[in-house]
Amino acid sequence: MIVENKEDFVDFHDTEWFKEVEPELTPASNLVFYRTLMKMTQTELGEKLGVSKQVISDMEHERRSISKAMAKELAKIFNVSVDRFI
């Protein structure tokens, strides 16, 4: 997306839609959302984190919790607040 004037850009976190949906979001659903938004596969994300594709899948399906250390790494990769994954 090309934004010619930053004043025209709206962060989706500030939209009414997001404010309605946010309480339903979980660390796992945020992980799926941001990974998909960045067009990354589970394998690609796993390689960046030094874990297997299965670990990513387990976190996305809530079979494995996201540790604080992992949340920090995910926040760096996706350039978002660590709170999204805690």
What does this structure look like?
The chain has a single domain (25-85), classed as lambda repressor-like DNA-binding domains (434 Repressor (Amino-terminal Domain)). Helix 3 (42-49) packs across helix 4. It is mainly alpha-helical. The chain has 5 helices and no strands. It comes from Candidatus Ornithospirochaeta stercoravium. It holds the Pfam family HTH_3.
Map the helices and strands.
Layout: H1 16-21, H2 27-37, H3 42-49, H4 53-60, H5 68-78
Helix pairs in contact: 3-4
GO molecular function: DNA binding
Protein name: Helix-turn-helix transcriptional regulator
Organism: Candidatus Ornithospirochaeta stercoravium
Would you count the extended β strands for me? 0
The CATH topology is given as 434 Repressor (Amino-terminal Domain)
Distance between the termini: 29 Å
CATH architecture: Orthogonal Bundle
**Roughly what percent helix?**
40-55%
CATH superfamily: lambda repressor-like DNA-binding domains
Major β-sheet profile: none
Tell me the name of the CATH class: Mainly Alpha
Shape descriptor: globular
Low-confidence stretches: none
Number of helical segments?
5
The number of domains is 1
- Element string (H = helix, E = strand): HHHHH
Helix-strand category: mainly alpha
Q: Nearest-angstrom radius of gyration?
A: 14 Å
Residue-averaged pLDDT, rounded? 89
InterPro entries: Cro/C1-type_HTH, Lambda_DNA-bd_dom_sf
Pfam families: HTH_3
Keywords: DNA-binding
GO molecular function: DNA binding
